[in-house]
Records
---
Amino acid sequence: GESVGLHLPTLSVQEGDNSIINCAYSNSASDYFIWYKQESGKGPQFIIDIRSNMDKRQGQRVTVLLNKTVKHLSLQIAATQPGDSAVYFCAENGGGNEKLTFGTGTRLTIIP
Amino acid sequence: ETGVTQTPRHLVMGMTNKKSLKCEQHLGHNAMYWYKQSAKKPLELMFVYNFKEQTENNSVPSRFSPECPNSSHLFLHLHTLQPEDSALYLCASSPRVGFQTRPQHFGDGTRLSIL
């Protein structure tokens, strides 16, 4: 079946630098994508989402970029802080409206 | 207070026990979900409820039995579980408005250990 994958399982970034977390998806029918952050001992927390009629969306210190041509999604975090250390998941909806397919996640570690 | 509350946070049970996980959402959503999260695996969708009606059963073994008495509450009844069922069980909710996908909001999960 279709799956969502991540290029790197771990990422270490210096505090204050920008982080980029990548995600590849394979279901061309997907029209909704979402990023979650999961800290230790907690559930996934919604960060930002994007629909396929957009290629960029910005939030507070975060930007999501969508490249439908190569089926690639990225999450950019500006000026990373120690509190950004977590596992980040991307997910896609497969063209449906209630089921999300999740990737395995990337662990982001912030180096002081 | 989180919008989605799960209890208990931790549960240890034997394979012959019967227990229930509870989820409550305070967000006014009408869709609720159960997921299983195992180490090094993507989140696995188990069940979906829309307006109290089950709309998805993702080939989940019958030893897991969901119940949704209203749009704010969701239960997962457990009986005769296996060691491989040890995992973090996450509940989520989302609004159901039209046919657009909306963000799902998660609780902090129940960490289940089967002895």
---
Amino acid sequence: EVQLLESGGGLVQPGGSLRLSCAASGFTFSSYAMNWVRQAPGKGLEWVSAISGSGDSTYCADSVKGRLTISRDNSKKMMYLQMNSLRAEDTAVYYCAKGLSSGWFPWFDPWGQGTLVTVSS
Amino acid sequence: QSALTQPPSASGSPGQSVTISCTGTSSDVGGYNYVSWYQQHPGKAPKLMVYEVSKRPSGVPDRFSGSKSGNTASLTVSGLQAEDEADYYCSSFAGSNNVVFGGGTKLTVL
């Protein structure tokens, strides 16, 4: 069974940094692209970033470009999201989501349960 | 303001069919066959129901079907069941490695 477990969320002050992690199990991790998708409280979904199975290619929404950086360690079956210069509008549940192939396509299945990031002073 | 436009709500009685629309532009929905639909129950993670306009992942009932015409995509749920009550989100590739979502539709089973 595919399992994705996010961690690293919490309360951070504006301008601060945080690193989210996603631990994967139940599939050949390096064979699949991975994604981060977020959902502000009571709001809709927003795609954040993606990384190919090999890690050679990364993709990022314009709203977070230059502040949020995706990476992965295939030997540890882990994906990360380094979040810098955080703003109040970054407050959201951050979901880790698996792609359906090694190359990146814009669909995600399954998703983890999410980790809440709150940016507030 | 979401990039894709969905009706805020939809409803139907058990056994009936309901269709949820998702309207974009020629730069997203109309320009690519890369539309997907997600179901989200309260407090739960989203679940992929349809991808590449009309394909269903393994395990998704064939009561769920997707289609597209021009700049509008649609998700039809046939034979409505109580467990179908949830929020539904559409998404589309929007070029330049960008993905946009709709604002979501709350489906109520009467």
